[in-house]
């Protein structure tokens, strides 16, 4: 394994052990539940939108290390961002995880989220990693529930 792989793995393990923003939100303006039946991951994403700004974002639920780390990385990255900035990051993550040609991660935009790039080698895990992001999009679009199947 390269040094970068080691670093990425360390980031994932850290976010799994100590997930950021892991809590329900009482005053959320948007929320949605996401299901990944393939792995059994369940995540609820909560957003407090103030105008165009994501003032707060959190999640709870249960799932594997990858889904939890991905949700934790997502909330840590998106808090305080505008909707436009958030959509840019969501697009980057989608291509990071699912583009057929391996993309060069935009580290400035992604930060630690780039650690998820190792997941693309494991097809089954990709849905675990994308679940929180699909759920976030569903919440913003006013859909209460989303499934990866
Ligand atoms: Zn999973």
Give a structural overview.
With 149 residues, the chain is of the alpha+beta class. The protein has one domain: Alpha-Beta Complex (Sufe protein. Chain: A), CATH 3.90.1010. The protein has five helices and four strands; from the N terminus they run αβββααααβ. A hairpin with a 4-residue loop joins β1 and β2. α2 runs parallel beside α5 and α3 runs antiparallel to α5. The longest helix is centred in the last third of the chain and has 18 residues. The model has no long low-confidence stretch (mean pLDDT 93). The structure holds zinc ion. Zinc ion (ZN) binds next to α2.
Task: Name the features.
single chain, 149 residues, alpha+beta, Sufe protein. Chain: A, four-stranded mixed β-sheet, 45% helix, 20% strand, globular, binds zinc ion
Strand line-up in the sheet with most strands:
3-2-1-4
> What low-confidence regions span 5 or more consecutive residues with pLDDT below 50?
none
Q: How far apart, in Å, are the first and last alpha carbons? A: 32 Å
**What is the beta-strand fraction?**
15-25%
Overall morphology:
globular
Q: Looking at CATH, which topology would you report?
A: Sufe protein. Chain: A
DSSP strand tally: 4
The secondary-structure class comes to: alpha+beta
Q: What percent of the residues sit in helical stretches (DSSP H or I)?
A: 40-55%
**From N to C, what is the helix and strand string?**
HEEEHHHHE
Alpha carbon gyration radius: 14 Å
CATH class identity? Alpha Beta
Q: How does the major sheet shape up?
A: 4 strands, mixed
Q: What ligand molecules are bound, each kind once?
A: zinc ion
Number of helical regions = 5
CATH architecture: Alpha-Beta Complex
Number of domains: 1
Give the averaged pLDDT, no decimals.
93
